[in-house]
Amino acid sequence: MTANAINNAASDYELAQASARGNMAAFETLYERHHRRVYSLCLRMVANATEAEDLTQEVFVQLFRKIGSFRGESAFTTWLHRLTVNHVLMHFRKRGVRMEKTTEEGEISEIQDIVQSMSERPRFVDRIALDKAIGDLPPGYRTVFVLHDIEGFEHEEVADLLGISVGTSKSQLHKARMRLRELLNKKI
Predict the structure, then answer these.
(1) Domain 109-187 -> CATH class
(2) Burial, 97: exposed, middle or buried (Cβ in 10 Å; 0-12, 13-18, 19+)?
(3) Could you give the CA distance from residue 85 to residue 41 in angstroms, rounded to a whole number?
(4) Options 3.30.70.270, 1.10.1740.10, 1.10.150.120, 3.40.50.720; which CATH number does 3-95 get?
(5) What percent of the residues of the chain are helix, what percent strand, and what percent coil, each to the nearest 5?
(6) Is residue 57's pLDDT more than 80?
(7) Which of 30, 109, 124, 141 would give a disulfide with 176, using CB separation of 3.0 to 4.6 Å?
(8) Per-residue pLDDT tens for 124-169?
(9) Are 145 and 158 contacting, i.e. CB atoms less than 8 angstroms apart?
């Protein structure tokens, strides 16, 4: 069996351990397994393909540096997801993305109703319209929306990740949903 075939059969934990010991083939296998997922997450968060590509490369450079700290207490994909989200959030902080503060709260069902009302068009068109609308959100709104409604983080987790209050997280989410509804209504 070749080294590549062995790496393809190994678990992510085993590959991470081998990578930490300097096995580049193991790290390349991890990259091949997970680079699309990391890129997709970066793209959803920054809504810019070039920036997402750069961030994906940066995440894997950071992963290479930190691979030895993966202890296998959670799934590798969970750990990599958190590493990616944190890296993108740091990117936003470095760029100085500001978040507005208010206390309103919104409901996701309104956005789902709008997307469902577009049912006369093919489903991929709906997805394109939604992706474009999310990309058109201001960075602060988009970040909270992606973390909460797409990635499934609770408001407390979003607040901790972004260094904001829970109320601000709820407000940003509400404003994001309202803006999405407005943008998607224009598409109908």
Answers:
(1) mainly alpha
(2) middle
(3) 8
(4) 1.10.1740.10
(5) 75, 0, 25
(6) yes
(7) 141
(8) 456 677 778 888 889 889 889 888 887 778 888 888 888 899 999 9
(9) no
